[in-house]
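#struct-help
A.M.: can someone run this one for me? Single chain, 338 residues.
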Amino acid sequence: MFARYRFTALLAARNREFLRDRTALLWNLIMPVIIVFGFAYAFTQEESKLFTVGVVASSLNGHADSPFAPLFTLRHLQWIAEEDGLLGQQRIERHQWDLLIDPERGAYWVNELSPRGYIVEQLLLASAPEVERHLLSGRPIRYVDWLIPGVLAMNMMFSSLFGVGYTIVRYRRNGVLKRLRATPLTAAEFLAAQVASRLWLIVVTTVAVYLGTHLFVGFPMFGSYLLLLVTLVLGALSMISLSLIVASRLANQEAANGILNLISWPMMLLSGVWFSLEGSPQWVVYLAQLLPLTHLIDAARSIMLEGAGLLQVGHHLGILLLMSALCLALGARLFRWE
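D.P.: on it. Structure tokens below:
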């Protein structure tokens, strides 16, 4: 009986503590609304797209006089402009697109092993039979092959944000930082130790997960493992640095949890973890470029699936490095022991 009373008293006290913390309460109410509206407006299309067709051009306008003009009138086709014809052919080889057309040359490319490509080609030939045909062949990129960089990056994100940011807030809340302040340890040394500890742990665990899953699934790897490792390190560093800003002054664990979720969930939804942003509204694409997870995933996928080198992913790595430097400087500047 006494155990039941202690339990109910503790339960009531914890409930009152949560309800009185208005910051945490607001985060828990607002967060689901943001997620629902994000899915409802950012990724809802007026009609479903059954096939994907790439166009070798800088835009989708100005092709009314091309031999492919009748194809542009068909519904349920997703059109993607791509200036680099070789990159478009690579997407055809790997079954990422169903058809690639070049309106200026009057030519198209199709993968002879793609069932979807065959259907789109028949639609094309029915409306524009006098076009130049090029056959490509290649292994299809499975969804799991495309997904693995995003899943590993998402796991890195959660480990970085909550493993560093939430922990430091808990240290401050429990008085650990106050006791550390009485030692000769400086704030810079403390933060550097936190970053280094979490960084090597993330790198080791991510490599272990990749190698372990690769043994059973067999992911394609067209690029450099060394470059992929560098991308992993810079991506983890950028998100660890971001967590330091959250942890710099907060002492409320519920508020820290809400802010970390506010940061992590939009990154998970907008950075292309589960689905590509190709064909999304342009404002969604611009917003995604502000997130470190986007650059980490894009660089990792380009290296693994497209064989991209340093020149192709250098801008992603530069942005990650710049974000890391800015967040580290801001986090160290704002940091307080108490």
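A.M.: thanks! The two ends are 41 Å apart (CA to CA).
D.P.: also worth noting: The mean pLDDT is 77.
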